[in-house]
Amino acid sequence: MTEIRCATVVEANALYKDAGYSGRAAPGDLIVAAYRHGELLAVARLIPQSGHALWLRHLCTMPAFRKRGTARALCLWIRNNVRTPVIIFPLPELIPMYQSAGFRITDADHLPVELARHWAQVKRKYPASEVMSSETEQ
User: Rounded to whole angstroms, how far apart are CA atoms 129 and 76?
Assistant: First the structure.
């Protein structure tokens, strides 16, 4: 059974490094992680934004645990337990996974100001990406 709980910056950065991922956690991030039998399987950074939102970044699963529902379980936990709206700019191929965890495509016009700049960069690099939110209504 997968246990979801907070992780430290050190734990998250060790997973990113071990997985060969370029993301890095920083102090001030809320780091949510999936563990099984004490082993760290996946992490996600939730970065506070003005306007009472969190930005989900750098969701990463250890390669041996990919395509087993670990990231989806982590996203479901975030969606069901974090009361602040969570915004994500997923890679196009990951949109269905986020949708299966209850995130929905939303209008980019409602982004907090500091996220609008990041969204413009993502959209240039990945034109098929979408803004997604944990909110069910706007």
Answer: 20
* Total residues found in the chain within this entry: 138
The confidence band for 110, taking pLDDT boundaries of 50, 70 and 90, is: confident
Residue-wise pLDDT tens digits, 54-71? 999 999 999 999 999 999
Are the beta carbons of 41 and 72 closer than 8 angstroms? no
What number of other Cβ atoms are within 10 A of residue 39's Cβ?
Answer: 10
Asked if residue 138 has pLDDT above 80, the reply is: no
The partner residues of 133 in beta bridges, in order of sequence, read 87, 104
Rounded mean pLDDT, 74-88:
94
The DSSP letter of residue 111 is S
Provide the H-helix boundaries in 19-109.
Answer: 70-81, 95-100
Could you give the residue ranges of the DSSP H alpha helices within 82-112?
95-100
Q: How far apart are CA 84 and CA 77, in angstroms?
A: 13
Torsion (CA) 128, 17, 84, 110 in degrees, nearest 10: -30
Which of 67, 79, 63, 56 is CA-nearest to residue 4? Answer: 79
